[in-house]
Specification:
The protein is 45% helix and 10% strand. The protein is mainly α. The radius of gyration is 36 Å and the shape is flat. It comes from Pleurodeles waltl.
Length: 252
């Protein structure tokens, strides 16, 4: 496990001399604060141990020293075991444009206006055309981030992939009915919607039943689960003061 903190440096005291009062006081103080000195060889050319590294007792640290030519102190190197961190991939932003909202006549007028702009008269015809298209698109159909990229993480742990497939199926039926407005499509939509709702109820019931059974020996987890069930997200914050109660009583 990687150490959370390390205290190291040139303390300029002889750690190898345990009879020294300063050394004894420092080591006793560090032990009282739950720090230990990692034992190593001499860190000075004269054979003294002036440099030290303090870590927590449970943290593994592999210390070694190497002499240097340009200083009388040795180089302290240490190794420790570190847990490899998982790489979290950041989804790229997806830009979309509302192409269907572009009117042909308005697009032609915008392109003509951009083409006759004196600021681009020195450009080549191809460059003027490309710039005009870009400016027209930015004006008539400005790019925006796709809603799928900014969608918040669902806070419904019981909502499984199977429910997501049922949801997608009934929405397909809904789009088909909106296009045709036929009776057969309406019946299919109603059947798909009822199937999806019943599956959601069963999945939610099974999930919270399991949570309550797991929290049978933990009143804290049990009350937390009950609080989630009785206080749904987005519930209004109702005032419960005595003055508010009197106002409600007087109103009725």
């Amino acid at each position: 496990m990687a150490p959370k903190a390390i205290i190291l440096g040139d303390f300029n005291i002889h750690f190898d001399n345990t009879c020294d009062t300063l050394v004894a006081e420092l080591l006793n103080l560090m032990v009282a604060l739950d720090w230990v000195l990692k034992d190593g060889t001499a860190t000075h050319r004269a054979g003294y141990t002036l440099d030290g590294i303090f870590t927590r007792p449970e943290e593994a640290l592999y210390l070694s020293t190497s002499p240097l030519e340009w200083t009388d102190h040795a180089l302290l190197t240490f190794k420790f075991l570190a847990k490899q961190q998982s790489i979290i991939s950041i989804p790229q932003k997806k830009l979309i444009r509302p192409w269907r909202k572009i009117e042909v006549e308005l697009l032609k007028a915008t392109l003509l206006h951009n083409w006759n702009d004196p600021k681009v008269s020195r450009l080549s015809p191809l460059a003027r055309f490309n710039l005009g298209i870009k400016q027209a698109m930015d004006t008539l159909a400005p790019a925006r981030i796709s809603a799928s990229c900014i969608r918040k993480k669902s806070n419904q742990p019981w909502f499984s992939q199977a429910l997501k497939n049922l949801q997608r199926k009934y929405r397909q039926k809904e789009r088909g009915w909106k296009l045709s407005l036929g009776e057969a499509e309406r019946v299919d939509l109603k059947l798909a919607l009822n199937t999806y709702k019943k599956a959601c109820q069963v999945a939610k019931s099974d999930y919270f039943t399991g949570k309550i059974n797991e929290a049978a020996n933990s009143s804290r987890e049990l009350f937390r689960t009950v609080n989630i069930l009785t206080t749904p997200l987005g519930s209004p914050n109702v005032e419960n003061s005595q003055d508010f109660c009197n106002k409600v009583a007087n109103f009725f």
